[in-house]
Amino acid sequence: MTDDASSSLLDGRALAQAVRDDVRADIQAWTDEGHRAPFLSAVLVGDNPASLAYVRGKEKDAAEVGIDTNTYHLDADTSQDALLERVHALNADDSVDGILVQLPLPDHMDEHTVIDAVAPSKDVDGFHSENLGRLLRGTPRYIPATPFGILEMLSRSEIDPEGMDAVIVGRSTIVGKPLAALLLRRTANATVTVCHSRTRDLAAHTRRADLLVAAAGQAAFIDADMVKEGAVVIDVGINRVDDPSAERGYRLVGDVDFAEVRPKAAHITPVPGGVGLMTRAMLLKNTLQAARLHAAHA
Ligand code: NDP
Fold first, then answer.
1. What's the predicted TM-score (pTM) here?
2. Nearest CA to ligand 1 atom 5
3. What is the per-residue pLDDT across 23-36, written as a single tens digit (0 to 9) for each?
4. Of 235, 225, 223, 229, residue with least CA distance to 210
């Protein structure tokens, strides 16, 4: 057991603020050199409340650090061709550094087609197949914000994954797979296992993890029995559970049973207040990088 439970918290709020402060200072230096402010365009299709909230959060963060934004809000029944036209116009617009198409898209659209229509040099989400290929090769251009945020959290907390048994639960293209590639790099040197819904005896894997990353989207399903004493536990999951006592009628919980696991873990991220805030902060870092890339190629 960790004696001082409070020492184990990886505070996403404070760490994300530190990232934003750094990005704001870097942008100030960038504009002091005579460059215009970085510019991020977001495209949102439909009225998914979570997506609306995410885009508003991104706009607010961008304003805080000095990134200009605009958001194109298209109707849910917009055709895929109309969306692609919008993306092509943003690709061609030299005043736009970064483009993000908020996911998920409506069912009548093909996400891969839309993501691959974004110019790879403006793909600040890092989801374009070219950027994912570069990540796998070990020469990333933009690192997808969630795995990037996890690495940043670890490094700012002086947790070195070298030699660790890292177990990731979830193999999505936005979290599990890119994180596995990043932890395998010679700069991280973890030994990586990726689990999924067909993994036999999940607990046998999670129990030997020095670094456990839960990204399955299953409320509080990682309990204390599944976690090794002294592990670093990163909870990516964001799940709504009914809670009549809450104003909204629900509350957000992670994939990890926080109360049970916290005393056993050396470090743990809370939900909310953990990886989600880091994800938002790393998008800002990628947008500044996009502005630098465009200035270099202008
Ligand atoms: P996906 O649904 O794309 O992927 C979930 C993965 O978890 C799949 O690989 C799935 O396996 C696996 N999985 C599901 N249930 C189990 C189980 N019981 N045991 C083992 N593996 C399981 O989700 P995302 O990667 O998009 O998101 C995962 C979670 O993270 C969600 O709660 C999401 O809201 C949250 N999220 C949080 C972010 C943040 O910034 N904090 C950013 C992005 C996502 P299989 O492949 O076999 O189906």
1. 0.96
2. 216
3. 999 999 999 999 99
4. 229
